[in-house]
Design a protein that fits this description.
Layout (H helix, E strand, L loop, with lengths): L3 E7 L6 H9 L6 E7 L6 H11 L3 E5 L5 H11 L4 E4 L5 E2 L4 H11 L4 E9 L5 E5 L6 E4 L12 E4 H6 L12 H12 L1 E13 L9 H20 L3 H8 L2 H4 L1 H8 L4 H18 L9 H24 L3 E4 L3 H10 L6 E6 L8 E2 L2 E5 L8 E4 L3 H13 L5 E2 L3 H10 L7 E4 L2 E4 L2
Parallel strand pairs: 1-2, 1-4, 2-3, 6-10, 11-12, 11-15, 12-14, 15-16
Antiparallel strand pairs: 4-9, 5-10, 6-7, 6-9, 8-10, 13-14, 17-18
Helix pairs in contact: 6-7, 7-8, 7-11, 10-15
Length: 428
C-alpha cells in the first residue's frame, strides 16, 4: 500500500532537482511514490527525472506543455495512489530523513485529514532566514484559530478528501497555493501539527518576472481567498493575511494597476465588495486608480518636505541607532546640511559611534535641532511623545515602510533627483 504520494511540479530546476529527489527517496518511510510532473522544462530537468526513474521503481515521470505549477500539481493528484499526498517544490528538500514517517504516523494516530510541521527558509549559503509561523508543540489546531494560508508544502493531505470535494489548485501561475490551502482547511476544519522542522524552503536564488497576465491571476487568487474566507467567516485569515495584502503588495501591483489594467481593477473591485460585505471596510488606497496614485503622491510630498527641512536645518539629529537610522544616513545623509549625531532614548555608559557620528541620549541635544525619527512604526509613537515632552519643536517622521515603498517604486518615477522650489526628490 502506498502511504504517501509526493508530487513535484518541475520547471527548469536542474541545479536543485537531485537534492530534492534524494531527500524524498532516502526517507525512512518506504511506502511512498514520487510523482514528478515536468512542466515543459527547457534545461536538463527532464533528463534528470528519466535518470532517477531508471534507478528507482517508485518514481513516476509525467510531462506536459508549460502551463504553470497549478495544473502540474493537479496532474499529480490525478495519478496519485497514496492515502495521503504531499507537495514538494523542486528547489527545496525535506529537513530530516524521517519527516514523512512522522507526518504519516501522527496523521493516522490522530485520525486527521491534514498533518504538518515546521518550515524554515534558507539562502544559497545555507543561512537560515526565519522561522515561518512556528509550531512549538504537538497537538490539534482549529484552523479558524490559526488563519495562515501559506506554506502548504509542510503538510500532508488525505487524498480521498481532496477528491471527494474536488479540491485542486487554480490554474494561476502565481498565487495558486493559498486558495488551495484555504480550500483544504475550510473542509478539514482542524489539523494536527508536530513541533519538528519538516521542510526546508530555499529563497533568494531565482528572479521572478511579472507581467500583466500574471498580476491579474495573482489578484484572482486573492479574490478567491477573500471569498472562501468570507463564506466560512474566517476572521483570523482576514486579520492576519487578507486585510493588508493589497497594501503590502503595492510595490508589485502599482506599475500594472497604474497602466490601464482594467481586468486587474475588476478583481480588486470584487475584493472590495467582499470585504465591505464581510467586514464593513476595505483598503481606501485601492478604491480606484485615483486613490492609489494620490496615496503615492502624498508619501512623496511628505518625503520631499522632510528632505527639504534636512537640507535647510542648521543641525540635524537622527533619532534611531538601528537599521533604519543607518539606512537614513546612507540614503539621505548627503542632503542634510549638518548631521550632529544619532539619538537614542537611553544610552549605556560605553561610548558608541555610527559612521563617525556620536550616539547620545536625546536629552543631550539642542532643542532647536531638527530631529528625524528613524525607527520602526511600533516605537515611533512613544518617541514622538517623548520629543514633545522634551520640547523639541522641529521634528520629522515619515514611516519607514512608506520610504521603502518609494525606493522600490523609484524606477517608475521619471526623475533620479529633482530640485524644485527648495524641495528635493531623491530616487534610487
Amino acid at each position: 500500500m502506498i502511504k504517501i504520494s509526493v508530487i513535484i511540479p518541475i520547471y527548469n530546476m536542474e541545479n536543485y532537482l537531485k537534492e530534492c529527489l534524494d531527500s524524498i527517496l532516502f526517507q525512512t518511510l518506504k511506502e511512498i511514490e514520487v510523482i514528478c510532473v515536468d512542466d515543459g522544462s527547457t534545461d536538463c530537468s527532464y533528463d534528470i527525472l528519466l535518470e532517477y526513474r531508471n534507478r528507482y521503481n517508485n518514481i513516476i515521470v509525467l510531462q506536459q506543455e508549460n502551463q504553470g505549477p497549478g495544473p502540474a500539481k493537479n496532474k499529480g493528484i490525478e495519478y496519485a495512489s497514496g492515502k495521503y499526498v504531499a507537495f514538494m517544490d523542486p528547489d527545496d528538500y525535506y529537513a530530516q530523513s524521517d519527516v514523512l514517517e512522522l507526518l504519516y504516523i501522527n496523521a493516522e494516530k490522530n485520525a486527521v485529514k491534514v498533518c504538518g510541521g515546521n518550515i524554515v527558509s534558507f539562502d544559497e549559503n545555507g543561512k537560515i532566514q526565519k522561522r515561518q509561523k512556528w509550531f512549538d508543540k504537538n497537538g490539534m489546531i482549529l484552523f479558524q484559530n490559526f488563519g495562515c494560508i501559506l506554506y502548504y508544502t509542510r503538510y500532508i493531505y488525505d487524498l480521498e478528501m481532496l477528491r471527494d470535494h474536488n479540491i485542486i489548485f487554480p490554474p494561476y501561475r502565481r498565487f495558486d497555493d493559498p486558495p488551495f490551502l484555504l480550500n483544504v482547511m475550510t473542509h478539514a476544519k482542524e489539523f494536527y501539527v508536530i513541533k519538528e522542522v519538516v521542510y526546508m524552503y530555499r529563497v533568494g536564488h531565482k528572479k521572478v518576472t511579472f507581467n500583466q497576465e500574471i498580476i491579474n491571476e495573482l489578484l484572482r487568487g486573492v479574490r478567491d481567498c477573500f471569498q472562501l474566507a468570507y463564506e466560512s467567516n474566517l476572521n483570523k485569515v482576514y486579520d492576519e493575511y487578507l486585510k493588508n495584502y493589497l497594501r503590502n503588495s503595492l510595490t508589485l501591483l502599482y506599475p500594472f494597476l497604474n497602466n490601464g489594467n482594467t481586468e486587474g481593477w475588476k478583481w480588486i473591485f470584487e475584493i472590495n465588495e467582499i470585504s465591505l460585505k464581510w467586514m464593513g471596510e476595505c483598503d481606501e488606497v485601492f478604491l480606484d486608480r485615483e486613490h492609489m496614485v494620490a496615496y503615492i503622491s502624498n508619501i512623496k510630498e511628505k518625503r520631499s518636505n522632510m528632505l527639504d527641512k534636512c537640507h535647510k536645518a542648521r543641525e540635524t539629529v537622527i533619532y534611531g541607532a538601528g537599521k533604519i537610522g543607518n539606512g537614513f544616513l546612507e540614503k539621505y545623509g548627503s542632503i542634510c546640511r549638518n548631521i550632529v549625531g544619532f539619538a537614542v532614548t537611553s544610552k549605556s555608559e560605553e561610548e558608541h559611534f555610527i559612521a563617525g557620528y556620536a550616539v547620545k541620549e536625546i536629552g543631550n541635544y539642542d532643542r532647536e535641532a531638527l530631529v528625524v525619527v528613524a525607527v520602526g512604526e511600533k516605537s515611533a509613537q512613544e518617541i514622538l511623545q517623548n520629543l514633545e515632552m522634551l520640547q523639541f519643536q522641529n521634528v520629522c517622521y515619515v514611516k519607514y515602510s512608506e520610504l521603502m515603498l518609494l525606493e522600490r517604486l523609484s524606477e517608475y518615477f521619471p526623475q533620479d533627483r529633482q530640485e524644485t522650489g527648495g524641495r528635493y526628490e531623491v530616487e534610487k
